[in-house]
Structure to design on (834 residues):
C-alpha cells in the first residue's frame, strides 16, 4: 500500500488565487513525506491542477506554475506510469490503497480509494472518484473560445488547439463560432477544424462565417470561402442550402454583379435549391444596374423553379418589363401581383400607363389609369402628360382634350411642352380655333412659344389661305425676336404668291435674305407658282425683281417661263428669256426647238412669224441649219435633198433622242406639207422610216393583209405616210405581182376623216369603218392602174385637195411645251388632231 496524500480543495482554491506562493508553501509543508511520495504528490498536484485549470479556463495559471529544478524526474516517470494506467510491475495501474486529502495544516479531511487518472486528448471523460463523467459541452466550448480569443490566428493558435485535453466535435466548433465574433479568428478555427479527422461540412458553420465576412465587407474572403464550400459539398455530397443562398444575397446587396451571378450559376450547376429571397436579390441587382434582360433571364429561371416574386421585386420588375417593351409579361405580373394581394404602388401604375400609351394600346392604358384611381392613388402631372401625348400621337384629339381639361381641374399646371403639344397637334389637324385658344392660354401662363409653335400655326394658316392671320403671327414672331425658319418663310411666300401679293412677297423675301437665308430657291419657287398659275405678267415682273435684287434662278424655271410666254403669244418677252437660257451655257434640245417650230406652224400673223424665226435662230440648235437647207436649192446645198436629210438624221443620237426625233419628224412634216414641200416631206418620211423611228407603221403579212398604221402621226405626217406607202404597195403589186387579200389603213378616230377625204379625191376603193380604212387587194390593184392615181402617188397631192390643205391649219396639233427633254414626247395626233 502506498500512502499518497492529496491537496486540500482549499489549497487548490488558494493555488488558483496565488499559484506560485501556494505551490511553494505546499512544497515545504511536505518535508515529512518520503522523497518518492513527495515527488508523486507534487507532480500529481501539478498535473491534476493543470488539467483542472484547463477545463475551468485557468490555463494561464498552469503556465506560471514552476516545478523545482531539484525534483527527481525518475520519480516523475514513476508517477507518469500510474497516470497512463501502467506500473513498473505491469499491473493494471489502479491505486488500490486509500488516498488521504489533507488541509493546510496536514490534517486528513477526506480519504478514498485511488483510481487511474484519464489521459488528456485521448479520453472523452473525466473521473470523479470512481465514476466516469463526460466533458461538458459548455466547458469544451468555453475552452475552445478561450484559446481562440487569446491566440486569434496563426501557428500559435493551431498549436494550442492541438493541445486540447479533449477531442472536439463539430458541435463544439459551431457553438464556439457563435461566441467568437472576430471573423479572422473564426476562419482560423474553422480551417483548423477542416484539417482534423473528425471534421464534417456544416451548413450552419458556413452561414456564420459568411455573416462575419459580410459584416467586415470582406467580399474577397466570401468568394474564397464559397469556393471552399463548393469543394466540400462536391466531395462529401452535402448541400449547404442556407450558406449558398446567403452568399448570393450578400454579394447581390453589395452590388457585386459578376461575382454574384457567377456564384448563382455555380449553385445552379450543383443542383442546390435557390430560395425566393436570393432570386429577388439578383433581379433587384440587375434591374438597378440597368440590365433588365439579365434580370428577365433570372426571372425565367425563377419561374421554372416555381418561385414567386416578393412585393418589392414586383415594384421593380413590372416597370422594367414595361419600359423594355415586354408589355404582355409586365401586365401578366401586374395581374399576378394583385392576385397575391400585393398592393401595386404608384410607380407600377405609372410605368404601365406610360408604356401602354406609347405602344398605342390606349384602351389598356386607360383601364390601368382608372384602376389606379380605384386604389385611391392620385395621378401625377407626368402621367397626365404621358396620356395626353399618347392620345395626341394616336390622333384622338378629343380624348386628349378631355384629359387636358381634367388635368387643369385637378390643379396641375400644364407645362411648356404640353402646351406646345396641344397647340401644334390641333393646328396640324386643322382645328385652328382650338389651337389659337390654347396658344393664347399659353401666352397668359407666361410661356413664350417656340419658333416651332409659331411656325406650325403660321404654316397651317397659310395652308388654309388666311393671309391676315398668317401675317399677324409672322409679325408677332419677329417682334418677339425670334428667327422664322426656312419652312415658315416658304409657306408664307407661297401663300402670298397664290394670293398674287407680289409687293408683300418681295418685302418678306428681302427680310428673309437679311436673316441670312439663301433666297434663290425660295424666289424661284414663287416664280414657279406664277408660271403654273398662268400669270405670265406677274412671273415676268417677279423675274425683274429678282434680277434687280441680285437673286438668280435656274435654267429649268427660265425654260418654263419661256414656254409659258410662247404659249401666251408673248414672243417679244420670250426671246430675251431664250437668250438668257442659251447664254447661261444651257443647251437647247431638239424638243425645245421642235416646240418653237410647232408655234411657227400655227402662226397666222406675219409679224409673229418674224419673231418666231428669230427665236428659232437664237436657239443655235443644229436643226435650224437643216431647216434652212431644206428650203434652199441643190446648188446651195451641193447635194440632193435625200442625201441632205439622211446626213442630218445620221447625226442624231437615237439612244438619247429617239422620242425627240419622232416628235421633230411629226412637226416638220406638218410644216413641209403646209408650205407645199411635198417631195421634201416624202424624203423626210422615207429617211425617218429607214432609221426605224416608226418601226411598226408598215406591216406585210404575206399574201393575207398589208397594213399601214398612222395613229401616232401628225396630220401632215399621216398624209405623207399614206401617199408614200401606197406608192410602195403599188410598186409591189404591179411590178412583182404580189396581191394581198386586203389592204388596211389604221387611222384611229382622229385621222380617219382627213385620210378618207384625201383618198376620196382620187376615187379610192377604201371603205371607212370605225378606225380603219380597208379595201380588197384586187380592188386596190385595179385602182392603182388609173393614171390619176399614178400621178397622185408619184408627184404630189392634186390641186383638188387645196381646200383640204388650207384646212390643215386647224387640224394640226398645238405645240406641246409641257413635254420636257427628260421624257419622250407623247403622240400628238392621237390627242389633238381634231
Amino acid at each position: 500500500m502506498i500512502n499518497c496524500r492529496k491537496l486540500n480543495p482549499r489549497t487548490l482554491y488558494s493555488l488558483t488565487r496565488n499559484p506560485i506562493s501556494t505551490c511553494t508553501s505546499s512544497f515545504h509543508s511536505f518535508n515529512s513525506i518520503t522523497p518518492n511520495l513527495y515527488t508523486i504528490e507534487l507532480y500529481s498536484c501539478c498535473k491534476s491542477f493543470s488539467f483542472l485549470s484547463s477545463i475551468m479556463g485557468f490555463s494561464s495559471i498552469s503556465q506560471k506554475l514552476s516545478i523545482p529544478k531539484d525534483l527527481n524526474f525518475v520519480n516523475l516517470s514513476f508517477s507518469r506510469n500510474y497516470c497512463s494506467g501502467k506500473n513498473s510491475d505491469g499491473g493494471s495501474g489502479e491505486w488500490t490503497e486509500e488516498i488521504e486529502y489533507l488541509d493546510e495544516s496536514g490534517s486528513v479531511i477526506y480519504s478514498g480509494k485511488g483510481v487511474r487518472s484519464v489521459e488528456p486528448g485521448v479520453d472523452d471523460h473525466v473521473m470523479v472518484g470512481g465514476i466516469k463523467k463526460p466533458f461538458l459541452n459548455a466547458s469544451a466550448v468555453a475552452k475552445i473560445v478561450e484559446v481562440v480569443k487569446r491566440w486569434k490566428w496563426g501557428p500559435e493558435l493551431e498549436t494550442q488547439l492541438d493541445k486540447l485535453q479533449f477531442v472536439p466535435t463539430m458541435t463544439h466548433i459551431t457553438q464556439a463560432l457563435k461566441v467568437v465574433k472576430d471573423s479572422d479568428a473564426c476562419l482560423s478555427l474553422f480551417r483548423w477544424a477542416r484539417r482534423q479527422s473528425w471534421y464534417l461540412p456544416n451548413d450552419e458553420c458556413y452561414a456564420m462565417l459568411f455573416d462575419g465576412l459580410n459584416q467586415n465587407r470582406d467580399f474577397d474572403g466570401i468568394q474564397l470561402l464559397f469556393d471552399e464550400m463548393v469543394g466540400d459539398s462536391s466531395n462529401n455530397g452535402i448541400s449547404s442550402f442556407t450558406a449558398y443562398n446567403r452568399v448570393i444575397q450578400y454579394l447581390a446587396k453589395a452590388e457585386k454583379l459578376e461575382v454574384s451571378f457567377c456564384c448563382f450559376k455555380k449553385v445552379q450547376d450543383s443542383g442546390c435549391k435557390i430560395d425566393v429571397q436570393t432570386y429577388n436579390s439578383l433581379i433587384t441587382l440587375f434591374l438597378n444596374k440597368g440590365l433588365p434582360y439579365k434580370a428577365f433571364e433570372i426571372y425565367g429561371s425563377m419561374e421554372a423553379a416555381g418561385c414567386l416574386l416578393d412585393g418589392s421585386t414586383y415594384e421593380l420588375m413590372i416597370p422594367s418589363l414595361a419600359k423594355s417593351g415586354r408589355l404582355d409579361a409586365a401586365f401578366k405580373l401586374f395581374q399576378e401581383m394583385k392576385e397575391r394581394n400585393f398592393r401595386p404602388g404608384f410607380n407600377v401604375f405609372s410605368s404601365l400607363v406610360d408604356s401602354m400609351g406609347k405602344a398605342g394600346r390606349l384602351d389598356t392604358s386607360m383601364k390601368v389609369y382608372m384602376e389606379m384611381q380605384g386604389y385611391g392613388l392620385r395621378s401625377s402631372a407626368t402621367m397626365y402628360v404621358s396620356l395626353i401625348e399618347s392620345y395626341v400621337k394616336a390622333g384622338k384629339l378629343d380624348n386628349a382634350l378631355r384629359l387636358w381639361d381634367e388635368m387643369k381641374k385637378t390643379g396641375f399646371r400644364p407645362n411648356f411642352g404640353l402646351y406646345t403639344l396641344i397647340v401644334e397637334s390641333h393646328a396640324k389637324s386643322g382645328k385652328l380655333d382650338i389651337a389659337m385658344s390654347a396658344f393664347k392660354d399659353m401666352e397668359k401662363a407666361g410661356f413664350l412659344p417656340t419658333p416651332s409653335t409659331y411656325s406650325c400655326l403660321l404654316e397651317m394658316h397659310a395652308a388654309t389661305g388666311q393671309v391676315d392671320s398668317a401675317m399677324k403671327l409672322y409679325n408677332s414672331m419677329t417682334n418677339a425676336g425670334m428667327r422664322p425658319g426656312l419652312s415658315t418663310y416658304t409657306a408664307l411666300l407661297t401663300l402670298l404668291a397664290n394670293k398674287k401679293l407680289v409687293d408683300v412677297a418681295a418685302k418678306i423675301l428681302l427680310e428673309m435674305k437679311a436673316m441670312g437665308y439663301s433666297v434663290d430657291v425660295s424666289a424661284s419657287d414663287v416664280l414657279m407658282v406664277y408660271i403654273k398659275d398662268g400669270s405670265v405678267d406677274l412671273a415676268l415682273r417677279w423675274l425683274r425683281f429678282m434680277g434687280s435684287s441680285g437673286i438668280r434662278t435656274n435654267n429649268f424655271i427660265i425654260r418654263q417661263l419661256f414656254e409659258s410666254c410662247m404659249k401666251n403669244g408673248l414672243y417679244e418677252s420670250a426671246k430675251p428669256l431664250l437668250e438668257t437660257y442659251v447664254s447661261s451655257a444651257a443647251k437647247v434640245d431638239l424638243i425645245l426647238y421642235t416646240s418653237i417650230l410647232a408655234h411657227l406652224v400655227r402662226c397666222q400673223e406675219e409679224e409673229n412669224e418674224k419673231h418666231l424665226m428669230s427665236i428659232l435662230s437664237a436657239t443655235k440648235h443644229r436643226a435650224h441649219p437643216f431647216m434652212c437647207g431644206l428650203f434652199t436649192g441643190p446648188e446651195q446645198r451641193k447635194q440632193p435633198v435625200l442625201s441632205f436629210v439622211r446626213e442630218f438624221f445620221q447625226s442624231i443620237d437615237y439612244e438619247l433622242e429617239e422620242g425627240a426625233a419622232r416628235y421633230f419628224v411629226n412637226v416638220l412634216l406638218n410644216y413641209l406639207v403646209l408650205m407645199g414641200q411635198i417631195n421634201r416631206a416624202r424624203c423626210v418620211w422615207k429617211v425617218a422610216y429607214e432609221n426605224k423611228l416608226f418601226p411598226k407603221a408598215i406591216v406585210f403579212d404575206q399574201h393575207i393583209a398589208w397594213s399601214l398604221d398612222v395613229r401616232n402621226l401628225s396630220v401632215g405626217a399621216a398624209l405623207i405616210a399614206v401617199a408614200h406607202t401606197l406608192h410602195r404597195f403599188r410598186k409591189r403589186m404591179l411590178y412583182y405581182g404580189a396581191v394581198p387579200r386586203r389592204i388596211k389603213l389604221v387611222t384611229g378616230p382622229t385621222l380617219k376623216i382627213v385620210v378618207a377625204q384625201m383618198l376620196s379625191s382620187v376615187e379610192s376603193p377604201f371603205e371607212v369603218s370605225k378606225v380603219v380604212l380597208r379595201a380588197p387587194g384586187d380592188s386596190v390593184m385595179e385602182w392603182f392602174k388609173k393614171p390619176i392615181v399614178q400621178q397622185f402617188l408619184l408627184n404630189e397631192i392634186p390641186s383638188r385637195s387645196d381646200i383640204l390643205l388650207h384646212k390643215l391649219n386647224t387640224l394640226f396639233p398645238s405645240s406641246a411645251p409641257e413635254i420636257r427633254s427628260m421624257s419622250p414626247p407623247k403622240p400628238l395626233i392621237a390627242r389633238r388632231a381634231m
Summary: The chain is about 65% helix and 5% strand.
